[in-house]
Amino acid sequence: MPIFAASNRQNRQKMNFWKHFWYLLITLGVGLVVCVGLQMVLVPLLLPQHQVDFYHAVQWSQNLFLMIGAPLLWTWYIYVRGCAHSGTAISAVFDVLQLRRVDVRMLALTLFLMIASVPVLDALEVFNSRLPLSEGLRAYAESESIRNMEVLRVMLQPDGVLGWIALIALMSLATAVGEEVLFRGAMLQCLLRDSRINHHVVAWLVGLIFALIHFELLGLLPRWLLGTLFVYLVYWSRSLWPAIMAHALNNLLALISYKTASPQELLQATHKDYSFSSLIILLSAVATAAILWQMSRYKDEKGCC
């Protein structure tokens, strides 16, 4: 009897996972339809005279409707609707997505981690761009990267204090919040709560999906590593905020790098060289490992997974 009961529980859990996963895809599809509809409205209004405003509006709509609105709606429908909970529905949704208060020490460690890991991530990006690929795949990857850089060059045009504020709000803060709510929030909770997959496998799986969704083959490895690292930040802190902070810092550093580069340097990003010496990269790896070890101790103290 206990064997049958365990088997039934496993079957129900498996069914719940696929049911909830498809609901998540449907909700994201609705968010995507809203974004496409808004984009169709904006095309005759802003193009071709106001390219910068058009790209910024599209990015804001993706962040708000696709990456934040859709996951929040899905979380409420799957885990909060019809369930008893203390406080408001939105607070319950935030709790499911682990948008909780976090210890200041974890935020400080996150800051040091992202600064210390810059040389390692830069070296990994160069290594990734030099991996042997077939001629056709290499040509496709480089053309996609150049196309993305051309769009980015347009988006980075605003100057002055207000221009920097607008870029940081959109490309550092809003994008970080949106992608973390979607990937390390809704998607992570769906896999952890409703599947029987080991949480370490879940971390690398979510990181891989995060990397693939950027459609940047030449930057796949660093994005995969970062996406996985952000999952572990959630594991160790039991909060989404360190991952959001790390993501925002990474985006901010990239924004500064791209903003200060010349248009020619942006379009030649597929042929970049190592920015740091071997010694700096080695020291960066050691410092990064030490900070991660300290974070794992924080995890042990708090009893996280």
Describe, in short, the structure shown.
The chain is mainly α. It has twelve helices and no strands.
Features:
single chain; 305 residues; mainly alpha; 81% helix; globular; disordered N terminus
| Oligomeric description of these chains | single chain
> How far is the N terminus from the C terminus?
31 Å
Number of domains: 1
Summing up helix and strand content along with how strands pair, one would put the structural category as mainly alpha
Approximate helicity band: over 70%
Instruction: State the helix count.
Output: 12
Q: Poorly predicted ranges (pLDDT <50, ≥5 residues)?
A: 1-9
Q: How would a textbook summarize the main sheet? A: none
**Percentage of β-strand residues:** under 5%
Mean of all residue-level pLDDT scores: 89
Count the strands? 0
Evaluate the radius of gyration: 21 Å
Element string (H = helix, E = strand): HHHHHHHHHHHH
- The 3D shape can be described as globular
What does this structure look like?
The chain is 81% helix and 0% strand. It is mainly α. The protein has one domain. The longest helix is centred in the first third of the chain and has 45 residues, at 2-46. The relative contact order is 0.13.
